[in-house]
C-alpha cells in the first residue's frame, strides 16, 4: 500500500526551491520562490518552512544555492567558502538536530567529491534531492511501524498530538501525522485531537489544516484542555514528533509537549514520540544538553494585531521543552519502535560517525 499526500512543503523546481508559506496557512495557501541562499536563511528563521526534517531538507537546498553563488573556482577556496555558507545556515535555528545532520551530510559529500567546482555543485544538488526523497520513505516507514504499536481497542482510536509533525514538517508525509495517516488508512482511527500549540499555533493552523485536506476528523483543543480530555476518557494515545532526541531517549519537541506527557502518564495513556533516525543526537547523553531556542516576545504578547498584556511585563518564550525518557512509552522510527533505553544499543550503529 503506497500512502501519498498532496502536501509537499519543500520542492525543487527548475532552478529554485518552492516553499509552502507556513506563516500564512490556513488563511492563504501560497508558495514562496527561493532562488538565493540568503532567502533560505531568512525563510528558516521566520518559519516559512519549519519542522525538524523540513528544516533539514530546506537547509540542504539552501547550501546548494549558496554553492551555486560562490565565485571561487579553486576547489580548496570553494570548500572554505562553502563551510562559511553552511555555518550561516546552521545559525538559523538551534534545536532541531536535523538541520546540522543535513548540513554535515552535504559538507561531507562536497569534500568527498573529486573534480571541479561545477562537479561538486552538481553533486550537492543530487544530495539535497536524496535527502528529500529519503525523508518521504522514512516517514512512510514511521507510519507503518507506528500503526503496529497503537493500542488494540474494540473501538477506533482517538489520538492526541501537539504542534505539527505532519507533511508540512517533513518532505511530505509526516512523523506523528505519518502514524495518523497510516492509522486512518487502516481504519484504526476515529479522530485526531490537535492541541492548538501556543504561541505559534502550529496545531491550530497547520495540523488541523492537514487533517482537513486529508478528510481526517480533527478536534481542536487549547493546550490547557489536554488533561481534562484525558480525564474524560476522550484520548486513547498520544503521538508527537521531536526536534532532537538524546541518546537516553529524552526528547525535545515543541513547548508544551512535556506537559502533555505528564498528563498522559497521570492518566495511564501511552505517550509515543515519532521521529526519524536523523533526529537522534547520540552525541548528547541526555536532554539537559539540548539547546532550547528562545524566540521573540512578540510571539506571546501579541495575537494578530492585539496586544494581550500591558507594557512593563517581562517575557520568557522558549520554543521547545524536553520530555524525560521515563514518560515515553516508545520511540517510533523508520527502523521500528524502541524503548528510550534501547536507542543507543539498537540504533547508534546506523548513524555514520
Ligand atoms: O518550531 P517548529 O514549528 O519548527 O517546531 C516543530 C516541532 O516541534 C515538531 O513537532 C518537530 O519539529 C517534529 S516535525 C516532524
- In order across it, which strands form the biggest sheet? 6-5-4-7-10-15-16
Instruction: State the share of residues found in helices, binned by percent.
Output: 25-40%
Reading the helices and strands in chain order gives: EEEHHHHHEHEHEHEEEHEEHEEEEEH
Mean pLDDT across every amino acid position: 96
Q: What class would the helix/strand composition place it in?
A: alpha/beta
- Strand tally is 16
Round the Cα radius of gyration to an integer and report it: 20 Å
CATH architecture of the largest domain: 3-Layer(aba) Sandwich
Shape: globular
As for the CATH topology of the largest domain, it is Rossmann fold
User: How far from one another are the termini?
Assistant: 34 Å
> Class of the largest domain in CATH?
Alpha Beta
Largest sheet report: 7 strands, mixed
Q: CATH superfamily of the largest domain, called what?
A: Translation initiation factor eif-2b, domain 2
Ligands, deduplicated: 5-S-methyl-1-O-phosphono-5-thio-D-ribulose
- Percentage of residues in DSSP E strands: 15-25%
Q: In the residues, how many domains can be counted?
A: 2
Q: Helix tally?
A: 11
Query: Which regions are unreliable across 5 or more consecutive residues at pLDDT < 50?
Result: none
Describe the structure.
The structure is a single chain. With 353 residues, the protein is of the alpha/beta class. It folds into 2 domains: 10-138, translation initiation factor eif-2b, domain 1 (Four Helix Bundle (Hemerythrin (Met), subunit A)); 143-350, 3-Layer(aba) Sandwich (Rossmann fold). 40% of the residues lie in helices and 17% in strands. It has helices at residues 37-45, 52-69, 75-90, 97-112, 117-149, 176-185, 202-214, 226-231, 257-266, 298-301, 343-347; strands at 10-13, 16-20, 31-34, 157-161, 189-195, 218-221, 237-240, 244-246, 251-254, 271-274, 280-281, 302-303, 306-307, 320-323, 330-333, 336-338. The radius of gyration is 20 Å and the shape is globular. 48% of the residues are buried. It binds 5-S-methyl-1-O-phosphono-5-thio-D-ribulose (MRU).
Amino acid at each position: 500500500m503506497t500512502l501519498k499526500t498532496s502536501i509537499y512543503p519543500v520542492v525543487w523546481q527548475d532552478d529554485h526551491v518552492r516553499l509552502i508559506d507556513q506563516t500564512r496557512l490556513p488563511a492563504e495557501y501560497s508558495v514562496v520562490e527561493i532562488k538565493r541562499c540568503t532567502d533560505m536563511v531568512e525563510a528558516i528563521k521566520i518559519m516559512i518552512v519549519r519542522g525538524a526534517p523540513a528544516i533539514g531538507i530546506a537547509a540542504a537546498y539552501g547550501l546548494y544555492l549558496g554553492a551555486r553563488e560562490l565565485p571561487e573556482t579553486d576547489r580548496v577556496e570553494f570548500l572554505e567558502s562553502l563551510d562559511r555558507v553552511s555555518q550561516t545556515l546552521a545559525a538559523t535555528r538551534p534545536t532541531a538536530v536535523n538541520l546540522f545532520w543535513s548540513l554535515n551530510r552535504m559538507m561531507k559529500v562536497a569534500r568527498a567529491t573529486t573534480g571541479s567546482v561545477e562537479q561538486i555543485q552538481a553533486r550537492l544538488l543530487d544530495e539535497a534531492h536524496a535527502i528529500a526523497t529519503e525523508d518521504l520513505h522514512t516517514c512512510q516507514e514511521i507510519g507503518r511501524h507506528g500503526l503496529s504499536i497503537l493500542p488494540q481497542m474494540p473501538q477506533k482510536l482517538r489520538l492526541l498530538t501537539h504542534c505539527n509533525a505532519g507533511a508540512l514538517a517533513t518532505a511530505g508525509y509526516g512523523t506523528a501525522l505519518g502514524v495518523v495517516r497510516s492509522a486512518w488508512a487502516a481504519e484504526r482511527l476515529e479522530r485526531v485531537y490537535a492541541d492548538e500549540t501556543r504561541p505559534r499555533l502550529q496545531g491550530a493552523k497547520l495540523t488541523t489544516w492537514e487533517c482537513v485536506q486529508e478528510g481526517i476528523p480533527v478536534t481542536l483543543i487549547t493546550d490547557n484542555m489536554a488533561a481534562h480530555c484525558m480525564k474524560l476518557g476522550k484520548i486513547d494515545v498520544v503521538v508527537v514528533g521531536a526536534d532532537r532526541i538524546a541518546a537516553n531517549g529524552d526528547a525535545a519537541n515543541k513547548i508544551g509537549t512535556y506537559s502533555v506527557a505528564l498528563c498522559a502518564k497521570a492518566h495511564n495513556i501511552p505517550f509515543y514520540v515519532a521521529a526519524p533516525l536523523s533526529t537522534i543526537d547520540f552525541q548528547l547523553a541526555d536532554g539537559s544538553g539540548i539547546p532550547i531556542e528562545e524566540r521573540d516576545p512578540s510571539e506571546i504578547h501579541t495575537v494578530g494585531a492585539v496586544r494581550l498584556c500591558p507594557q512593563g511585563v517581562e517575557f520568557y518564550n522558549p520554543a521547545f521543552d524536553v520530555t524525560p525518557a521515563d514518560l515515553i512509552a516508545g520511540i517510533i522510527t523508520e527502523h521500528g519502535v524502541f524503548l528510550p533505553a534501547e536507542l543507543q544499543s539498537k540504533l547508534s550503529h546506523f548513524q555514520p560517525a
